[in-house]
Design goal:
Layout (H helix, E strand, L loop, with lengths): L2 H5 L8 H28 L4 H4 L1 H20 L5 H20 L4 H24 L10 H8 L1 H21 L1 H22 L11 H9 L1 H21 L2 H9 L3 H29 L1 H19 L5 H29 L4 H29 L5 H25 L7
């Protein structure tokens, strides 16, 4: 084979760039509230645990919405769907920036998250129509680099803007970025991008597969373990270390930079490592980081402890998507949508548990409880690898 032919499959199509940027905006919108809790609860005169509903309730909406949307939009042009999702995101974040009180803000956030329920799983599910099978794993992880870029730039910037100028300006920034994303997607995505609709039999097969269901449960446990603490990271670092808004933004920047590095590394190597091995490495890194966070007593050590957590956080999401597609490629539309539901279910459970722990035991117990959840997720991942080999998913004909 000619050398040029050997290297050609390594090139990913340019159309993946606007899809990745859409995940930047979606990811920033999802994660930014964790950095704004202090400002929102002060500005709107509500408790920290009440403010945490912006995370937990919104996450439940995405959890329920992703599979419903996936089942509803089977024959829709994905260009129209993805562009429309970003327009909706722009509109609702504009309204959120103008919200007069907490519950109107909560309503805007809940409705905005319908775009997250549609965009992320449907972008992943149509990648197979844009790249050859040999590039599928790398293409999926590339598009999900958007979440780590959001963590590197979007979340720290949003937290800094919120802490300096007020949370409304962070919402306004999200609205502007959503408009940019909608324009780029409309300009680059091809028309007529309609993946085959899944039948009721395909949904039943997905839901009845032991390998897929166990793999999805890993997503729930991993997200829950992380969001026990991450949902309340802003009040945690202020109470424990008396951190300033700038210090907190730098903490998120360090965490996000590691998230980008870890996801970029996995994106380049996942087709060689395999999704299962990549997932094991990522979950181990997160569990180590959270265990170290529980032992820190100075802000500098807290930053250092967040680094291994960051290295694994987005790498695990990307590896999980590739893992599900690899287990059953023909069921990817269903399994990826369910994985989005699982991720947000875990976030909602973690945020809810974190709020309960704050009320009954205080903020200091959060990282220890979270690290236990990650160790359980790691054990489940190893079990799921054996399950996938023993109970392979048969392709529907």
């Amino acid at each position: 084979m000619h050398p040029a032919q050997a290297t050609e499959p390594q090139r990913l199509p340019r159309v993946l760039w606007p899809m990745m940027f859409g995940n930047v905006v979606i990811g920033m919108g999802v994660m930014v509230v964790a950095g704004l809790l202090n400002d929102i609860h002060t500005s709107l005169d509500v408790s920290i645990t009440t403010t945490g509903q912006l995370i937990s309730v919104s996450a439940f909406v995405v959890c329920l919405g992703a599979p419903v949307i996936a089942a509803t939009v089977g024959r829709w042009d994905r260009r129209l769907l993805l562009v429309g999702s970003m327009v909706w995101y722009a509109l609702l974040h504009t309204l959120a920036a103008l919200a007069p009180g907490f519950y109107s803000l909560l309503g805007c956030r809940v409705l905005a998250m319908l775009a997250a329920a549609a965009y992320t799983p449907q972008a992943a599910a149509c990648i197979g129509m844009l790249v050859p099978p040999a590039q599928r794993g790398r293409a999926i992880t590339f598009v999900f680099l958007g979440w780590s870029v959001a963590s590197v730039l979007g979340t720290p910037l949003g937290a800094w803007i919120g802490g300096t100028f007020g949370w409304r300006w962070s919402m306004a920034l999200l609205a502007v970025l959503s408009v940019v994303s909608a324009w780029w997607l409309a300009a680059r995505l091809p028309r007529g991008l309609v993946p085959p609709a899944l039948s009721a039999a395909a949904w039943r097969q997905t839901l009845s597969s032991p390998a897929l269901m166990l793999t999805l449960s890993i997503t729930v446990m991993s997200a829950a373990g992380q969001f026990v603490l991450f949902s309340y990271m802003a009040p945690y670092v202020v109470q424990r270390y008396d951190a300033t808004p700038t210090q907190f933004s730098l903490l998120l920047l360090a965490y996000g930079t590691c998230g980008f590095a870890g996801n970029a590394w996995v994106s380049r190597r996942i087709d060689h490592l395999g999704a299962e091995r990549a997932m094991t490495m990522a979950l181990s890194s997160i569990a180590l980081g959270m265990a170290l966070v529980s032992q820190t007593h100075a802000f500098g050590w807290m930053v250092a402890a967040m680094l291994p957590w960051g290295l694994g956080v987005f790498a695990s999401n990307s590896a999980q998507q590739a893992r599900l597609v690899g287990i059953a490629p023909t069921l990817a539309s269903a399994s990826v949508a369910l994985n989005t539901s699982a991720m947000y279910l875990g976030q909602a459970l973690g945020a809810t548990l974190g709020g309960w722990l704050i009320l009954h035991q205080g903020l200091s117990v959060l990282p220890g409880v979270g690290s236990l959840g990650l160790m359980m997720a790691l054990a489940m991942s190893l079990w799921a690898s054996r399950m996938a080999r023993k109970h392979p998913v048969r392709t529907l004909h």
